[in-house]
Amino acid sequence: MSEILQESNFFAVMLTIFSYETALLLKRKWDSPLCNPILLAVVQVIIITKLVGISNENYQNGAGYLEYFLTPATVCLAVPLYDQLKILKRDMVGILAGVLCGTATSLGVIVLLAVLFKLDHTLYVSLLPKSITTAMGLALSESSGGIAGVTTAAIIVTGILGSLLGTSICKLLKINHPIAYGVAFGTASHVIGTAKASEQSQLAGAVSSLSLVVAGIVTAVVFPMLSSLH
Amino acid sequence: MKYLKQFCILLFFSFAGEMIHHVVPLPVPAAIYGLLLLFIALCTRILHRDSVREICDFFIVIMPVMFVAPAVNLVDYWGGITPNLGQITLLIVTTTLGTFAVSGTVTQVIIRYRERRKNRNERDIARK
Fold it and tell me: What pLDDT, on a 0 to 100 scale, did the predictor assign at position A139?
């Protein structure tokens, strides 16, 4: 049985979507910030693959078909951006200021903590681009000799953490304007945050996609300078 | 047929992004180039919003599903992180929360300030 599942082209994708749908059901039942659909789905997939004896490698081979759609899905974010263009233009100063300050905070705190913890250079450059989208962060990290695995892990944990705690932080700090909400999600937790912000409103989603693009570009520009700092 | 056509348009922009990514030596992923190209095409009215409406709405809603497998993959990366696990966790949590708080607050303060100023100006004009 396990062999059939290992070799199946469809089981991994089916399991992923099934786990996500179950997670959505749970979220509808208990509306707690801990009921994050991605997190719940991940836990469920890990448990089920362990139970039926599928290795992570085999699961990834099958589920990789879903990742194929990640690029077209990111391209789609242009549409809410276009729909909200008027509002984005009106509040461009606020959006850009928020993204710039947020990116500066992210990079600044990493430099500070890396020095404080005496992290070695490889680990430092692997963590530096953790707040931007995976493909961009990975390219930057590798250009300075970072470890791809650590960068990917840090980026994904950052994304999930943002989508897990973001709503609570916004409530705590009374960040309730949809534009500020979108800037926070896009700047702090890239595409995963944007997927979460889009749940709140189309405007928040659009602002979040704009923020993730700007944050990515700013990080890419200052990265060479910062990577030689520590 | 409508959906197939929309999907084809979307793949065209993904492909165009991929081409630019191959040619331009910058660490910008194909998806971001594709996003900018589609945005420009919509703004310049080369492409009508309706030509990609349903497919884009669909992909944006199902996007979180695509992050499940990469997150499950973290199981394999554990080895590279464990020696510094505590420090790295602290670093990720602090920066993520800090970035959230700073970016959101800065934007909200500026927007609210501009709204107040605009309202005051409108009141002044009305009074005159």
Answer: 80
The stretches of B24-84 forming alpha helices (DSSP H) are 30-43, 53-62, 68-72, 74-81
Cβ atoms of A35 and B34 within 8 Å: the answer is no
Residue numbers of B between 18 and 57 with CB closer than 8 Å to A:
18, 26-32, 34-39, 42-43, 49, 52-53, 55-57
**Chain A residue numbers touching B98 (CB-CB < 8 A):** 105-106, 109
Task: Establish if B15 touches chain A: CB-CB under 8 angstroms.
Answer: no
Q: Is pLDDT of A130 > 70?
A: yes
Note the pLDDT of residue B80.
62
Domain span at residue B52 reads 1-70
Looking at the fold, whether B61 and B11 belong to one and the same domain comes out as: yes
Could you give the C-alpha distances from A213 to A100, B65, B76, in angstroms and in order?
12, 21, 29
Least Cα separation, residue A1 to chain B (angstroms): 22
Task: Assess whether B65 and B78 both reside in one domain.
Answer: no
| Distance between B99 CA and the closest CA of chain A, angstroms | 5
Q: Are residues B23 and B1 in the same domain?
A: yes
Query: Angle, to 10 degrees, between the axis of helix A134-143 and the axis of helix A148-172?
Result: 130
Give A157-182 pLDDT, tens digit per residue.
899 999 889 999 999 999 999 999 99
**Interface test with chain A among B95, B114, B115, by most A beta carbons within 10 Å:** B95
Residue A34: per-residue pLDDT: 74
